[in-house]
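User: Structure tokens for this complex, please. No commentary.
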Amino acid sequence: MQKGKRVTRRAFLKGSVGAAAAFTIVPRHVLGGAGNTPPSEKFGGALIGCGGRGNGTFEGLGPDVEKLAICDVKFVKHADNKKVYSDFRRVLERKDIDVVAIATHPGWHALISIAAIEAGKDVLCEKPMTRFIAEGRAVAEAEKRYNRIFQIGTYGRFGRSRNQGDILTHKIMKSGLLKPCKGVHIKRGGLKVREWSGMVNAKPHPIPDTLDWDMYCGPAPLRPYHPHRFGGTHRGYWDYEGGGLADMGQHHFDPVQWTFAKDDTSPVEIEAFAPPAHPEACGMWGWVELKYADGLTFVMDSTEWPEDNKPSYDRKESGGVSLGDLSEEDQKKIKEMPDPEPLIGFPEAIRTRKQAGGHAAAAHRCATILHLANIAIRMGRKIQYDPVNEEIIGDDEANRLVNQPMRAPWHL
Amino acid sequence: MNEETSALVELVNKMPDPDQRGMYCTDIDKDKIEGAIRNILRGGRANILGVVDMLVEPGKGDDVKAHYALHCMALHVCKQDSNRPRRRFSRTLASQIGGDRPKEVQKYLIRELQVAGGREAVESLGNVLTDEDLCEPAAQALAAIGDGAAEQLRGALSRTSGKCRLTILQNLGVVRDTDSVGALKKALSDEDKAVRMAAVWALANIGDSGSADTLLKTADKAEGWERIQATKGCLLLAEKLIAAGKKSEAAKIYKHLRDTQTKPAERYVSDAAKIGLAATD
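Assistant:
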């Protein structure tokens, strides 16, 4: 097929390009043999954010996506606005881009995801999903409003949705029959607290002339440039992320959240043990306890404070849930429940137009666990959360971290 | 250095030293920090101002401990059962906005007002909405505080241009100020595309039913990114109208988008409008 004659996936799937398409679509049985996808069924893809996680995230789009554009704020010197861009808005205007992989710093994840959805694209977004809670709700609303596919870039839940033990726990919890639930899931270590903290004494550096620093900061305050705020170490600053807790936390808690059937709700009581947080730099904390309305408790124990590799949380013991926790009558009900549908990944979702397993509403609820943990750390007090209205109860100042103002022209 | 200042310096020095990597990750003594903060705040306004006096512009000296201490103070006053310590802290910081302190220091004070400020700080924040260096943090702090913010933003709008005007227009949408609808509609015909788009979003977020025709016309004639954003504004407005019980007005928006955004590349908008329209039945 000649270059420039590619039929976009959207037009192809909807059969809406009329007669012109008849001359360009080559049936799979002609060219698509031996496992090859014919060019006419390729999806046009773009990678926005070309740092360390860029290519890996793009690969998650699947083998049928052709990379037509790359975009990064560090490309200001050599952007040609044909293949290489430094402003994601120019990428999203392109009608031949069907799917977008987003691997910027997380302070941009929600805004670019929403913008891509508004431009009719499907989105695979690197974890963590968001920088604060209201962003996640806005992505989920956009996904629903435009009926687009969104998948978060963490995949542990897919295996869980096929594992019999997890399926049983999922069904017990989904049934709502276990009241109160005494399950306690403790995540000890692995949250890279020290590794992904921020500097508290960073002095301003000259901005590299290859970098659009204003665009990098985006909705966050425009700070003096420092190399530690850029690249992977951005994780240590509240402006862009939430430390190792938010970053690694989404990997760990996303599958756990599926197993315990909490994709549509959030913890209601959150308490942390931590020193007062720094205003800009993520830093040290001991543990966080998050309790759901039914009693299920998630715990994060950093094991990095006060001493390396030693647990600091000793309030509760780990404990799962089992059929034996239920009456015989309720056990029977569980056994009669159908298994949940196995979750589907992004490549299948964009072909079938079925919701991806890590869809925005679920990913948002997982990110909320992490944001609530960080809010309890940052505010230094126990908080009560309303998972329906998605706001902290009776605490105006803590709510300012639930929905944070953005620097114009950026908004949700 | 007098005795009071010396005592304050001693308390601020109880804040941790950054570790070898410049972080607060080792040798953190939570009780020592919190005890020192309590003692600083016992000194009232004088001590708050004393800590503010220790702040310097980034790169112009070492204020790491004072910087951290001020934020710890903001967190501490928010934790108290009584609102009085928070108000005193907020009033004291607000009194330092707009004066001769370096702009970067003022920005930091404004950000701490975003953490702990209340109604008592909004006038001081409103006064710097015309300041090119301070309007962004001031508008964000006002939006976070909420109470009394709309009056300040609205009042400053006619006195601003460029970045400050854009910031104010957007934040009038954030605080959903219905009294600004006229000014926002006027901004829809601004020469600056960013201003037009900010006005579209603000009007949509306010949920003003009288803006429906104007927003649809804007979406009809816009191109590229602006068209995408104007269309989003129309869909957002329709949802706000449904939430307000104005289903027939929402249906009008959905029907228009369903019937006009029908090219293959925009079919998803037409489809979204159909889904929205079904919710108005």
